[in-house]
Design a protein that fits this description.
Shape: globular
Number of helices: 7
Oligomer: single chain
Helix content: 40-55%
Number of strands: 7
Largest sheet: 5 strands, mixed
Length: about 230
């Protein structure tokens, strides 16, 4: 079955999680798992398993930095003793980054979709990765996303920016519908900005907004002096 595709601009994606350290760490963890999955494919076995008839062995890790639109990712790249492994991700990340972000936004709301994660992993690695390998490496992603979604809001944000982004979604039957992405961004007295909440829902529905703001309050948002929003 064909997957739904979302039409969204690069600027929308870049602004969505701009200056969000929590999301940077989440992306860092996901990219690290993708590198590990590609290395396992390269070596033909799981990490720390002895290989039979393999011409090389694992040889620890090297630290490398990947520059992304959410900041620097500090990654541990596994090494093959003969130096034969070089992550494809470093060559392909920029053109695949938007798809990765969008998948995480959807997963944030609906739970991990192994098929979509598998497609992005293969796009970044340039090779087919087994579903079982993807499931194993990303089995904890649901929990990590839930921690991000439900994290406590300890910093005071006197200014709250609320936005609605309307995205066109092409369904598997080729019909096109629009989805609303609700985004709440907090601004501290010092000017620090952070995305506090994201939700998919009907932006014209009052209950959707009640639930959205209630979630922010329950997570600790307090001291808001000014709310800036569009016409939604």
């Amino acid at each position: 079955m064909a997957s739904d595709k979302v039409a969204i601009s690069d600027d929308d994606v870049q602004g969505l999680f701009n200056d969000s350290e929590a999301f940077r760490k989440l992306i860092e963890g996901v990219v690290q798992k993708i590198i590990e999955a590609e290395f396992e494919k390269h070596m033909g076995r799981r990490p720390y398993e002895r290989g039979r008839g393999r011409p090389t062995h694992r040889n620890g890790y090297k630290t490398r930095t990947l520059f992304t639109r959410v900041g620097r990712l500090h990654l541990r790249v596994p090494q093959a003793r003969d130096g034969s492994f070089s992550p494809s991700l470093y060559r392909k990340y920029q053109r695949t980054e938007k798809a990765l972000f969008l998948t995480l936004v959807e997963t944030y709301q609906k739970g991990v979709a192994t098929r979509k994660i598998k497609e992005i992993t293969e796009e970044l690695c340039g090779d087919r990765i087994s579903k079982s390998t993807v499931s194993r490496y990303f089995s904890e992603l649901d929990g990590e996303l839930e921690l991000f979604r439900s994290r406590g809001l300890e910093r005071e944000y006197p200014y709250l920016i609320v936005d609605v982004q309307i995205h066109l979604v092409r369904r598997s039957d080729n019909s096109v519908t629009s989805d609303s992405l609700l985004v709440a961004e907090g601004v501290s007295e010092s000017g620090h900005r952070e995305v506090l909440g994201v939700a998919l829902g009907d932006s014209e529905n009052e209950q959707t907004w009640r639930d959205f703001f209630l979630d922010l309050r329950q997570r600790g948002l307090d001291g808001v002096k000014l709310v800036v929003s569009d016409d939604h």
